[in-house]
């Protein structure tokens, strides 16, 4: 019910809170009274309806004002998302670096890491930091989401391609003692052509920090390509990304890779 109020521009939300707290705005929260307090704001009728529903639930105006103020303070504490770039260093342009952010997230994770990438090359190097972090911290759980592709003209059964990918990953590409859980999208292996691929590139650390990027786990993406991402410490966003991946797994859209 309060969503319509939280979506107000900051200055209008503050005016609404003051009017509710001072008693200038009282039930039945008519549109005309709201306009007098807020000016001709868009969606006045929607705001009025939300206030009436809160009033019907037994929440008085001053309590609504307190909730709006608390939500504003909580939102102010969320660190603004920051841009993260790969590519040539240009004098006068200052931005966080993809490789550095990757290392920081992996090195700082305490409980969990979710990592999704479309491609990786040179597995021992790509996974070195992650594997070392897992071996050093037995409490850290890691979930990797990887794409398995079918090369043009390849006729092997999907099951064979999965086993071949798993064998290469565990024998040659994964450098650690502990193994992460790995999931893949089986649609990429359809004999008639990929019905879809796992193309998301993201890292979520401890369900607190999310890094959404165009960069794969490759040297080119980290050091040479022009790649762009966003790092956010919004816990709600981080949790949402993890829950989405978990749901894809629970519903069988993403399948578990055979273990080492």
Keywords:
9-stranded mixed sheet, 260 residues, alpha/beta
SS strand fraction? 15-25%
User: In one word, what is the shape?
Assistant: elongated
Count of distinct strands: 9
Using the CA coordinates, give the radius of gyration.
Answer: 25 Å
Number of continuous helical runs: 11
Mean pLDDT: 90
Order of helices and strands: HHHHHEEHEHHEHEEEHEHE
Output the structural class.
Answer: alpha/beta
Instruction: List unreliable stretches of 5+ residues.
Output: none
Largest sheet strand order: 2-1-8-7-6-3-4-5-9
Q: Note the gap between the termini.
A: 49 Å
Instruction: Give the % helix.
Output: 40-55%
User: What summary fits the major beta sheet?
Assistant: 9 strands, mixed
Account of the 3D structure:
The chain has about 260 residues and is an alpha/beta fold. Strand 6 and strand 7 form a beta hairpin. Helix 2 (about 10-20) runs antiparallel to helix 5. Strands 2-1-8-7-6-3-4-5-9 form a 9-stranded mixed β-sheet, sandwiched between helices. The mean pLDDT is about 90. It has helices spanning about 5, 10-20, 30-40, 45-55, 60-75, 100-110, 125, 130-135, 160-175, 220-225, 235-250, and strands spanning about 80-85, 95, 110-115, 140-145, 180-185, 200-205, 210-215, 225-230, 255. Helices cover about 45% and strands about 15% of the residues. It is built from 11 helices and 9 strands.
């Amino acid at each position: 019910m309060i969503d319509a109020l939280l979506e107000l521009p900051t200055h209008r939300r503050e005016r609404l809170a003051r009017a509710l707290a001072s008693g200038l705005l009282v039930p039945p929260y008519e549109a005309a009274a709201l306009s007098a307090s807020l000016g001709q704001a868009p969606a006045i009728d929607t705001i009025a309806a939300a206030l009436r529903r809160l009033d019907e639930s037994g929440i008085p105006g001053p309590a609504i004002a307190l909730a709006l103020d608390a939500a504003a303070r909580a939102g102010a504490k969320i660190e603004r998302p920051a841009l993260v770039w790969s590519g040539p260093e240009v004098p006068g342009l200052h931005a966080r670096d993809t490789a550095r952010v990757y290392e920081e997230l992996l090195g700082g994770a305490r409980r969990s890491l979710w990592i999704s990438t479309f491609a990786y090359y040179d597995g021992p190097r790509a996974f070195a930091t992650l594997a070392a972090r897992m071996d050093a911290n037995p409490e850290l759980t890691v979930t990797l989401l990887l794409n398995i592709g079918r090369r043009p003209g390849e006729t092997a059964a999907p099951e064979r391609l999965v086993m071949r990918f798993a064998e290469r990953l565990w024998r040659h590409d994964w450098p650690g003692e502990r193994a992460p859980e790995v999931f893949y999208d089986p649609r990429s292996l359809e004999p008639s052509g990929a019905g879809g691929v796992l193309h998301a590139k993201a890292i979520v650390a401890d369900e607190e920090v999310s890094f959404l990027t165009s960069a794969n786990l490759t040297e080119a993406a980290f050091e040479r390509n022009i790649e762009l991402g966003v790092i956010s410490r919004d816990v709600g966003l981080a949790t949402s990304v993890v829950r989405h991946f978990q749901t894809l797994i629970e519903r069988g859209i993403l399948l578990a890779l055979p273990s080492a």
